[in-house]
């Protein structure tokens, strides 16, 4: 949608699955062709994400903040279920990124990952794209950490779900950000575990708000965050490609004037 309107970024910074889509964009891949390929693949089957394993993974991730409440029992009961093999993930991402190196990409690109040892944000700006995207989207407890440049790296969404600050540090003069976090549901459950999880979501949303506000001020207002309505999509259901693309395109179309305003007259 944006490319059809003459809007191509100078750089792309992505975190988690956004690093994969961002890599395709930075490589000037045929996005329509990629969508067709993805629609022909059963990605959940490729990555061995069954309905049951998806439910268990959602529980483990969603409640993992409460370390001593039920997590150990689930891990013990699932100990005979192997995690997604990195080789399988690498092969899939090689297909998605044409086995390119970051320095070879036509557009500047970086992927955000989390340093498992020190709990800090790592910005990957060199090496093979498939390893960077795998590290950025290595879901804890499901996909093993990716060893890269001396680090053990896991999902970048743990430390930065909307990486506007790394984009600013890389020299961006105007930023179009996409936040696919689900909105807080009204009338939350009152059980202690649900409330604890909700406080985590509130904290994460507030961190995103503070970072985007700070970057927007530094860019003199030239930052726009899109929040497409994706609440009905399950973040682990990779087979809903058409639905996700349709929502994204329609939302971008509705906000096209605001998007163009962010970049000014320099981009038609």
For this entry, give a set of tags.
268 residues; 5-stranded mixed sheet; two-stranded parallel sheet; 44% helix
Structure description:
The chain has 268 residues and is of the alpha/beta class. Helix content is 44%, strand content 12%. It is built from eleven helices and seven strands. It has helices at residues 17-26, 31-40, 43-46, 51-63, 71-77, 86-97, 129-136, 164-169, 192-218, 241-254, 256-263, and strands at residues 11-15, 108-115, 121-124, 146-148, 151-155, 175-178, 223-226. The strands form two sheets. Strands 1, 2, 3, 4 and 5 form a five-stranded mixed β-sheet that branches. Strand 2 (108-115) and strand 3 form a beta hairpin. The chain is globular, with a radius of gyration of 19 Å. The two termini are 14 Å apart.
The count of DSSP E runs of length 2 or more, i.e. the number of strands, is 7
What is the molecular shape? globular
Give the mean pLDDT: 81
- Structural class comes to alpha/beta
Number of helices: 11
Radius of gyration: 19 Å
Write the layout of secondary structure elements.
Layout (H helix, E strand, L loop, with lengths): L10 E5 L1 H10 L4 H10 L2 H4 L4 H13 L7 H7 L8 H12 L10 E8 L5 E4 L4 H8 L9 E3 L2 E5 L8 H6 L5 E4 L13 H27 L4 E4 L14 H14 L1 H8 L5
Helix pairs in contact: 1-7, 6-7
Give the structure's gist in a few sentences.
Helix content is 44%, strand content 12%. By secondary structure, it is of the alpha/beta class.
């Amino acid at each position: 949608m944006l490319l059809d309107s003459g809007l191509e970024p100078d750089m792309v910074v992505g975190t988690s699955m956004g690093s994969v889509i961002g890599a395709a964009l930075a490589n000037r891949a045929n996005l329509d062709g990629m969508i067709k390929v993805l629609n022909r693949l059963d990605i959940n089957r490729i990555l061995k994400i069954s309905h049951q394993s998806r439910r268990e993974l959602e529980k483990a991730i969603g409640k993992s903040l409460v370390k001593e409440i039920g997590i150990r029992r689930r891990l013990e009961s699932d100990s005979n279920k192997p995690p997604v093999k990195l080789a399988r993930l690498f092969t899939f991402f090689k297909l998605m990124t044409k086995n390119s190196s970051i320095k070879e990409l036509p557009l500047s690109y970086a992927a955000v990952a989390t340093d498992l040892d020190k709990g800090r944000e790592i910005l990957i700006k060199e090496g093979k794209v498939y390893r960077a995207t795998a590290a950025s989207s290595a879901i804890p407890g499901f996909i093993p950490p990716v060893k890269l440049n001396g680090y053990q790296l896991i999902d970048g969404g743990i430390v930065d779900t909307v990486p506007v600050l790394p984009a600013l540090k890389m020299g961006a003069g105007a930023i179009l950000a996409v936040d696919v976090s689900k909105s807080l549901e009204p009338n939350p459950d009152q059980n202690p575990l649900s409330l604890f999880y909700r406080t985590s979501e509130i904290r994460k949303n507030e961190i995103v708000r503070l970072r985007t506000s700070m970057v927007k001020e530094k860019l003199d207002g030239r930052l726009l965050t899109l929040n497409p309505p994706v609440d009905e999509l399950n973040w682990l259901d990779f087979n809903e490609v058409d639905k996700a693309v349709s929502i994204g395109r329609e939302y971008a179309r509705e906000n096209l004037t605001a998007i163009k305003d962010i970049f000014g007259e320099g981009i038609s």
